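Example 3.2
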Amino acid sequence: MDTTTKTAAPRQHLSKQQWISRSAFCFGNVGHSAFYGVMSNYFIIFVTSGMFAGLSKSVANRLIGLITGLIVGVRIIELVIDPLLGNIVDNTHTRWGKFKPWILWGNIVSGALLLVLFTGIFGLAKVNWVLFAILFVVIFITFDIFYSFSDVSYWGMVPALSEDSHERSIYTSLGAFAGTIGWNGLTIIVVPIVTTFTYLATGHRTEGPAGWFAFAAIVTLLALLSALAVCLGTKENDNIIRQSAKQKTSIKDVFSAIFHNDQIMWPALAYLMYSCAYVVTNGVLFYLYKFVIGEPGHFWVVGVIATIVSFFVSPLFPIFNKYVPRKWLFTIGQCCMVAAYLIFIFGRSNIYVMDLGLVLFNINCAQLVTVLTLTDAIEYGQLKSGQRNEAVVLAVRPMIDKLTGAISNGLVGWIALTCGMTGSATAADMTAKSIRTFDGMAFYIPMVLALLSIVIFLSKVTLSEKKHAQVVEELKNELAAGNGAEAVEDVSAAQTTLTLLAPVDGKVVDLASVTNEDGTKGFPGKGFAIKPADGRIYAPFDGTIKFAFSTQHVFEIESAAGIGLVVHVGIGTVNMRGAGFNIHFQEGQTVHAGDLLMEFNRDLILQNGYDDIVVNFLTQPQKVQLQELRLGDKVEHGQPIAKAEYKK
């Protein structure tokens, strides 16, 4: 191999707007996630401990049961409602885009209604609890719909911020990382804020209604500031793909796509088991420290530990994943969770041992592993059925999170009622039976779910990193063979011939001489290869970028007449999963001959043991013939290298 002139792709620097956009989107989920934590966990705690102070226990428990059942029912209904809300958002057309109005107004309306709920609807239950129940139903449903508008818009905005799959993964990772800060930060501040403001209002350091209202108000303000940051700091891309998207996916289509793609269904089921365990346990940790251990003042440590651990686990995940397959990272995380449950059950007499349990409980990559596996399932589904279902992948995890949130709300309310952890009860009021009931629902059942998630992932999730690379290569081979390519429509005589320019500097070689990853000679399809002398790829003709795999090493460009050319950088480079590749285009973008489309790090490719040869093949070999190919010549990018002509 001639590697004397190999070059490394220069590092791509972010523009000021990119820094602002990423930072704004990241901060957006701090408040958004904190707001979700208040409504999903701490509102139930407020309901069971402070909302009905002054009412008889029988009436209070009846209202607690009503509210708990309503919240569970609404969350389950949301599994069907969310796609409908998404359709409304998708049909929104304003000068601010389709997402920002719903993000802002969704937060304003839901924030205002949450504050009303944290007043106990201004104490109406003490005057007329029947009227209170009716109004609560109306207010909570309205509140939840507007929150869902905001939630669907925030995560649905990611594809509109960038068409680059790597850039989308950065936005998603930033949002998820910020979400852990918002969610776990509540655990740190909830007790100090609630007790401090209750003391200011009543003179008693306890968790009273005034303190809960102040807590809700502070988080609501944070959510509004976060929403404003997203609205002011991000910009939706208005491109050909978004302009041409008119068809909507029905609910039937969404669920059909899930159940016909086993590598969406099984990872989703494993994640459901994990998420149920994690969310339920998180929902009852406050009860554990207040009623079982009798140390409510130590509860803030739960959030501190979770936040610190997340600062290490999320950023280090890509490094771990270079050496450890995803399935084992998932398994290790679940085993840590099981160990944490054993500590929560048998080590609670020592508060520092409990801290160790909290560390183990939060050492988990399940969410990241699931997102990456589902993303890989896009290509898997395309190979299996010929269809790409990005929308389904984007919808699966949020749907699971809402389902587990519903389950958590129901169990937390039920545990509080069954174990007597309501009203003014304290740790001294707990009986051995109530503690056993609490342990069963809070730890034993979640521990079984964590173990089930391991079994499902190891036995049913077959889409490993290696298999995904094989899937991508199979898709590439099908494209090279012309399988699945659309038939060329009749075109005018002036459009039947297309001059192909060299996309990269180097020596032109025959596809038959290319050595494949398995050692065999001959790359399938009709086209040519170039042994590169440089790490830059340029547009070989005027056309439109049709697709780019998430691995970033391959893309298709199609001329106005319908002639498609796939540019594939390297042999085996799919296994690098995007490392060393920088793309300078968006899917659906119109480009001109000579535009810089990609930079790739030749040194990194060779260091990983792969060939850096650039393979170019026509997507419709049966319909198009290649003429005047300059085999053996050394060329510079932009020089004519061949002609592609429709067969007569």
